[in-house]
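Quick one:
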Amino acid sequence: QVQLVESGGGLVQPGGSLRLSCAGSGFTFSKYSIDWDRQAPGKDRELVAAISSDGGNTNYAASVKGRFTIARYNAKNTVYLQMTNLKPEDTAVYYCHARTFYPTVYPKDAYGQGTQVTVSS
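Output:
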């Protein structure tokens, strides 16, 4: 059974930090790129950060570049999103999304259930 489980969300003051974790199971984690997406109330889901299957390539939304860092440890089937200097506009539900581009690997993608991040004083 394919599973992605996010953890690490919570309430933090502006300027604070959080580290989100995404743990995968039931699939070959090392063959999947991982995105962190977020969705704030009344807004569309947006891509926050992405990392390739081998960890060699990363991408960030302009709004978080320099503040967020994505990293993965395939030996632990885990991807982290280190978030620093958090702002109220970072408040959202954060989702982990796994995608594979290997032609013979299935499923092609999977989502976690999300973890709430609230930045407020």
